[in-house]
Amino acid sequence: MTTTNAPSAVPVSRPFSLWDMACRQLDAVAARMQLDPGTLARLRQCQRTLVVSIPVRMDDGHVEVFEGYRVQHNSERGPTKGGVRYHPGVTLDEVKALAMLMTWKCAVVGLPYGGAKGGVVCDPTRMSMGEIERVTRRYTSEISIILGPNKDIPAPDVNTNPQVMAWMMDTYSMTVGYSVPGVVTGKPVEIGGSLGRLDATGRSVATVTLAAAERLGLHPAQSTAAIQGFGNVGSAAARHLHAKGVKIVAVTDAYGGLFNPRGIDVAALHEHVRGPGGAGTLQGFQGADYDPDPVAANARLLASDADILVPCALENQLTAANAEAVRAKIVVEGANGPTTPEADAILLGKDVTIVPDILANAGGVTVSYFEWVQDLQANFWDESEINRSLDRIMLRSFHDVCDVAARERCDLRTAAQILAVSRVAKASRLRGIYP
Ligand code: NAD
């Protein structure tokens, strides 16, 4: 949430509705599974959609009114769970789609949650800490009627962080009159957060990458990887892959890219970008060629000859326009929705193994689940126990998805969706319709 002096970033283009895309994917899987029309009709709708206005007195004294959303897609497998993003481009359409995606993500790794998502239309890079705190507290207060540790549990997402979660937890707790750490996850450890949460998503991406490589007979020490995005997910995925011997030959961020066919020293890069007083970007790192043109650098990364391509930045990165150029054997989706349906078809036609987002990046919500369990029990685990449990769940889920893919003779994305939708549909049938 800090403003950097870095050069201008690549603009985000969003040519179509994310919600329409999510529904189209659901329709395709439902048809394949012969899902009954009543269940499909229920899953095609969000259970609750709350739109709130958030009046905030800004530092210069004027009042600004922001729009916020909280959407709960489906609670049939348990309380709903999902992040809150602060971004000028947030729309209700996007929040609904991401809530549905969370339902599938929780189901595919077997967590007892449904999916939710939240967002506030604001630009935190242009706001002071005080303004961000006031937006957070009023937003939390407005949506508190549908929040609660047994109802709906937010977490950080784009432009929100442990401090924002601390303010959300405090606001909710002050409203009910006692401390409720389990109402949000991704909190600082000092107030009920979990060890291992910051690394969890990148760790899960690395775990499934190595499992996918093994299935293709690729040995980590003889494999190369290209990582798009060096934020929370990309940097942790790069570190964990590097630790297992995978050579990281290309890394990009929103401002440029680094390339070194002999391998990039990931620990040194992490220190340079994200260490105390770090640059915040890849720029200035010695030990690889730097391309300062983000569009050219990303095009070069996506078409690089690395064995493994790991998009960990934004949605819509692999499209009909660039998928043909991909040379990797494995694509692992660290980001949510980095591959358009058109690119998906092209990559599958080239026999590329795609490990889908709802499986690959589920490590974040899995450790959020561990955090919630620890908060409810007021009993905290050490980091090795958390990492062991996370690895176990990720490997089991990867193999569950591979088994469905073998049985149904389909790709891993379709298999993950079949597994997730069948679990939610089963819960829905068992619970029936109230009243
Ligand atoms: P982040 O903000 O920490 O990092 C994003 C990185 O992507 C930054 O390095 C940024 O410079 C780079 N980037 C932005 N635009 C780019 C572009 N056009 N080309 C190349 N790089 C670009 O975000 P994050 O938390 O790492 O999340 C990344 C993705 O992973 C998002 O899609 C997010 O929804 C998803 N995700 C995150 C988590 C989590 O626990 N953080 C969990 C599940 C999914």
Task: Write a structural description.
The chain is an alpha/beta fold and 435 residues long. Helix 3 (92-108) crosses helix 14 and helix 6 crosses helix 7 (232-243). The model is unreliable at 1-13 (pLDDT under 50). The protein has a seven-stranded mixed β-sheet with strand order 9-8-7-6-10-11-12, sandwiched between helices. The chain starts with 17 loop residues before the first helix and ends with a helix. Helix content is 44%, strand content 17%. It has two domains: 43-191, Leucine Dehydrogenase, chain A, domain 1 (Rossmann fold, 3-Layer(aba) Sandwich); 200-360, Rossmann fold (3-Layer(aba) Sandwich), CATH 3.40.50.720. The longest helix has 26 residues, at 383-408. It has helices spanning 18-33, 37-43, 92-108, 129-143, 162-176, 197-215, 232-243, 266-274, 294-302, 341-349, 357-360, 363-377, 383-408, 412-431; strands at residues 48-57, 63-74, 80-87, 114-121, 152-156, 224-228, 247-253, 256-259, 289-291, 308-311, 330-332, 353-355. The chain is built from 14 helices and twelve strands. The structure holds nicotinamide-adenine-dinucleotide. Nicotinamide-adenine-dinucleotide (NAD) binds next to helix 7, strand 7 and helix 9.
Give the structure's gist in a few sentences.
Helix content is 44%, strand content 17%. It has 435 residues and is of the alpha/beta class. Residues 9-10, 201, 228-234, 252-254, 294, 298, 312-314, 334-336, 361, 364 line the site of nicotinamide-adenine-dinucleotide.
